Amino acid sequence: MTKLKLTRPLAFIDLETTGVNVGSDRIIEIAILKLMPNGDKEMKTMRINPTIPIPASVTKIHGISDADVKDSPTFKESAELINKYIVGCDLAGFNSNKFDIPMLAEELLRAGIEFDSTTIKMIDIQNIFHKLEQRTLIAAYKFYCGRPLENAHSAAADITATWEILEAQIERYPELKNDVDFLSEFSSRGTNVDLAGRIVLNANKIPVFNFGKHNGKPVTEVFEKEPSYYSWMMNGDFPLTTKKVLTQLKTAHKK
Fold this sequence. Notes:
Blueprint: E1 10-17, E2 27-35, E3 41-47, H1 56-62, H2 66-69, H3 75-86, E4 90-93, H4 96-110, E5 122-124, H5 125-132, H6 137-145, H7 155-172, H8 180-187, E6 199-201, E7 207-209, H9 219-225, H10 228-235, H11 240-254
Parallel strand pairs: 1-4, 4-5
Antiparallel strand pairs: 1-2, 2-3, 6-7
């Protein structure tokens, strides 16, 4: 029985991947722990064939090799099932706002499935933890739950630990409201316009670039003065979610 107060399902997501580049790396394992408003919970774990090699250095971290996933379905083959499982859910995870959710959104878009982050609340337990204690997942579990984390870097173990940490955080800190809207706002960092944080809102709520030579400049201003910058980004190694936002901003500016 969960202690979280929910008005709709909350899905905790943890990914094991070929690397940390959202634009070019791929998912090889996904674990989803879904909590229901009535207190029920269910877990789904899947291995995924990434269709690209898993670097040996990455295998050393999570223990998953090419041989382990060679007979697993590809993400495209699993996309409908995964999307159906999380539709209607708010999302949570450990470093999920920066990595797991953008990576999942990228894979869904590659499979032809739209992912609209504006319709959901996202809770990043790592951001809550870093704001209040400044630790890692293993340290967080020991700190909040009082015992060592077994099988760290297994997606199922990591995501179960993440859920337990969030509940322990709510019990420990009076300032944390047991409310998804509050937790989503508290665990957010900045005001990202795209999931990868390449575009953010400035103090005046205007979308600006958050990297490179145009860092801090309004997106529409850059497009007016340097139209080729849009083409450069659309042809570059940027996440599909970022390119989608760029196109939306460019189209809206023309109207």
